[in-house]
Amino acid sequence: MTNIPVNDIKKLREKTGGGIADCRKALEESKGDFKAAEELLKNWGIDKAASKSDRVVGAGLVETYMHSGGKVGAMVEVNCETDFVARTDEFKNLCHELAMQVAAMDPKDVKELERQDYIRDSSKTIGDIVKETISKLGENIVVRRFMRFEIGQD
Asked: Helix and strand tally (H, E) in the chain?
């Protein structure tokens, strides 16, 4: 299938956040099957994320989140390669979601956090969310550390 309608590419791009060329290629390879195209994009994103894992992450953000009327809060440090990416809405949103996850699920360390089901979509793990963002932004992203605070807890 070489003639993919532009509306189909746009629809897949809006759903997955993939690039136009990647969405077209995925739809072509899947012969127009949206589910198969989504899976291809996901697999390609994981491959892209793995290829960037050895890059130095010298920029990033510290994000906070307050939960339950100020009785629970979390702070996360998330690193990326450049200040440019650190200022994007996509990266800022990832940092916010990670801080919210820490506040809600109280992971013990970064590895446990990455293995947890994402609170907004249990079909994905936090590691999947980070890899998707790496794929979209084209830079290595690392959750460096976090801290969770709860009133009355040591």
From this structure: 7, 5
pLDDT per residue as tens digits for the range 25-81: 888 888 888 888 888 877 766 556 555 666 667 899 999 999 878 999 999 999 999
In sequence order, which residues have a C-beta less than 8 Å from that of residue 64 and are 6 or more positions away? 73, 74, 75, 99
Whether 1 maps to a domain, the answer reads no
Torsion-angle region of 57 (φ positive above 0: left; ψ -120 to 50: alpha; else: beta): beta
How far is Cα 41 from Cα 49, in angstroms, rounded to an integer? 12
CATH number at residue 63: 3.30.479.20
Q: What is the dihedral of CA 50, 56, 62, 68, to 10 degrees?
A: 20
Does the CA dihedral 42-46-21-88 come out positive or negative?
positive
**CB atoms closer than 10 angstroms to residue 46:** 16
